[in-house]
Structures are given as C-alpha cells and as structure tokens.
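# step 3/5: fold
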Amino acid sequence: MGKKQQYTRWDTPGSDARSLVMVSLVDRGELCVTVVDMQTPDELLDFRFVSVAAYRNILEEYRLTEGLDVPSTGWTVIVNNSEWLEQLEDVEDLFRDEQKGSVHYMIITEDDVIDILSSRLPEITKRPPAAHEINIRGKSVILHHPEDAEEIRKVLDGVGRGDG
C-alpha cells in the first residue's frame, strides 16, 4: 500500500446537513443513492452515478477506526490515496484498464457509510419526497414518539395482522 488514506471535503448540497439519513440505494445500471437531512425532511437529495466500478455499504459502527470526522469534512467526502481503489488497481487488470481516473466518493450517514468508485462525478439533484398519502412500496414514513403515538400504535397493530 502507498500513502496514508486522507479524507477531503466533497462539497455537495448534503455536506453540511445536520443529520443525514439514507432513504434508498438503487442499482439499476446506474447507482442512485437518496439521502435526507432530518432537519429538512421535505427535500431529498439524489446522487446519481452513471459510471460505477464498485460500491459498498457498511454500517457506520464498523468504520469507527477510520478516523472519519464529519464535523470537519462534512457528510460527503473524497478519499485520497484510497486503499480500496489501490487494491482493485493492483489485483484487477481489467479494472485498471477500464476504470482509469476513478475517484473514491464516500457518503456518510447516521447509520451507513456508502463508498463509490466512479470515473465520473455524480449528478446531484434535490427533490421533494413522494406525498404522504401516496402508497409506494418500501416508502418510509417517519413517526415521532410521543406526538405520533396513535399512528405508531396503528402501524404496530397492522404488522401483527400483515397489514403493515
């Protein structure tokens, strides 16, 4: 391995979020990572990577020894001297030939650390979430206790009946 890995701020609309949470990660020929700042839940951020060599999602509690410092770098980071990128370049000839110029992007959330190796910057867009009344399979609804206690009770009752 070469030089020590370094984390550099990657200025994005999510860099300075108060509390970033992943909403979804979808891989359908391109990778789309959707996150939300819990302080502004009416606005989602989509990171759409059209050229992805590799990605991984690891729970943040298993990344504590890496020295990630969200207060100084923000929630979105570029990893310089990436050990992961270097490993792939050393071992995989095809990767080295076809993914020249790949960058190690990192999106850190409250629960996840998503690493993406891509030779192109992602398209980042802001959008509103789907309306609360629209029933989208897998759509999350955030409820707070105690103010949403009645709704929480209904959801939990529905889970037992298979309605949730």
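# step 4/5: annotate
The mean pLDDT is 83.
# step 5/5: archive (pending)
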